[in-house]
Amino acid sequence: MGFFDFFKGSGKGTEQIEESVEPVSTYETKDEFIVNARLPGVAKDEISLNITPTSLTLRVERKRREEHEKKAEGSYAYSAESEVKSFSQTISFAASVHPREAKASFKNGVLEVRLPKHKTPAKGTFVPVR
User: Which of 27, 51, 69, 124 is deepest in the core (most CB within 10 A)?
Assistant: First the structure.
């Protein structure tokens, strides 16, 4: 399932977005990376972030439940429909970030994550082959 397929549904209150719109954008400044994700129809509690020094994983899990009741003379019908959709995207960074100093906000269907860069680049370790 692609990113845009996540937002398409059966028309039961699910909003759709244009496929020409780029839903996740990443910007780099001198001091930080900024990630913006447009998530129409998603609630804040449906979003989770996992941040490492070199990447950010955005995960969205939408749970919908609809209940239907029908009463007629002498009969009663009840049904419930549940649907779970999930989406995950990982963004890698060209420089190390401070995961514990990251700030995230969600307003009007747009998630913004600010990730401060390490002031000194991470150094690799030489490993001898034996």
Answer: 51
Return the CATH number at 14.
2.60.40.790
What tens-digit pLDDT sequence spans the chain (130 residues)?
A: 555 555 554 444 444 443 334 589 999 999 999 999 999 888 999 999 999 999 999 999 887 777 777 777 777 777 777 777 888 899 999 899 999 999 999 999 999 999 999 887 666 677 889 8
Domain of residue 24, residue span: 3-116
Within a domain: residue 34? yes
Count of domains observed in the chain: 1
